[in-house]
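Anyone? Bumping this.
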Amino acid sequence: MEQVKTTYPNPDRPPKKFTAKSLHGRTRLYVITYKDLRRFQNFYINVFGWDMIEMPVAASGIPAGDEHPSLLIATGPAQYDYEGVTPGHMNMFVHWAPGEMEKPGPFTEIHMDRPLEETIQKIIDHGGKLILDKSKSALAKPLDDSKQSWEIHAVVEDPAGNYLYLWKCPSSRTWDELETEYDEM
Amino acid sequence: MKKIYTCFACGFPIAFEETEVPAHCPGCGAPRSQFLEEPWCGSIEKRRIHVDPPEVDPNRDPFDISFHPAKDFAPLRGHGRTRQWVMGYNKGQAEEMRSFYQDIFGWDIIETENSDPENPTMYCATGPGTENWEPRVCSFGYGFLTPYAEEGEVKPAASFILEVKDLEETLKKTVEFGGKVLRERFTFEGQDYAVIEDSEGNQMYIWELKDQEPDYCTNPITRTGAQ
């Protein structure tokens, strides 16, 4: 495991234990957009050494071979399915912005065992907003909890206007994958 | 009838009713004809079909986005990793933000050492961490909630933080490959950063960790996945 010295004020305690068998609240990937695919690739491949694949249709909703593909990007060591294989970095989810460049934000996992509407209502009750206007985000969509999907389920805004791209993992998740670890009691 | 389907192309396993199986693999996009089937045995962890992951081709074209296993990142020594995110808030909104993220998502939030107590920069643990507040588990990150930037050309926008080994060299390459420098080297809480914009207009911080090298550079990793 990577050992890096602390770079933040240490409050003389470690972070709290995350003991639930749940990834709710983890910021799993970071979401940004591009206008010109080749230009985007040229920048990140040459400046930062990123490695990228076309995101499968099951996760992007965009058929393979589309001229404006979504991308799944490894920014550090990754599994064959582009989940990280070492702790300490996030991979990227990048999609085409048909209009203005969109607000970037974290791809955040939400409860996989609770109704989507329940999680969204809690966000609204705390001053957040559900984004439905596709001109604000190409990923915005009405809530649909009727079928399981690897696509982003909802785009929401926090009280300060930041976007969160929410994902509810299908129930077929395997709990023996590295990214599903949680704290012991 | 529920079955477990393991993709021959990438090894990704999924469990679904036969009538609801996706037409393409969620891991790599391969068609359903590539799925290996086995009966549901009560748990996906107990499946018996496992596929060796494909080999990395060190000579592949980095612009080719067809499915391939990710490259060996050890030679980069951590350069280019997305380490954290940054989200802004308006002055006076700190407590609202803290309660939003604590109550809904269960984050553990601390203030950075030299913050303005009225409008602090807050560091957020979004999942399991080490004693020194680094993510302990793969594939997620921590981040900062901070008052919206008011420095020069830096936009009041959400952003992310990339690790770099040489800040000036990265600024030079940023311009060479179509990006912009929004703020030259500066120090925040003892760490050196700069702010840049990519070729598309996305803003990001770059964080110089010149002498730190991730453990995987000296102790090679094994890609176990769900195997």
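Late reply, but here is one note on the structure posted above: The longest helix of chain A spans residues 37-48.
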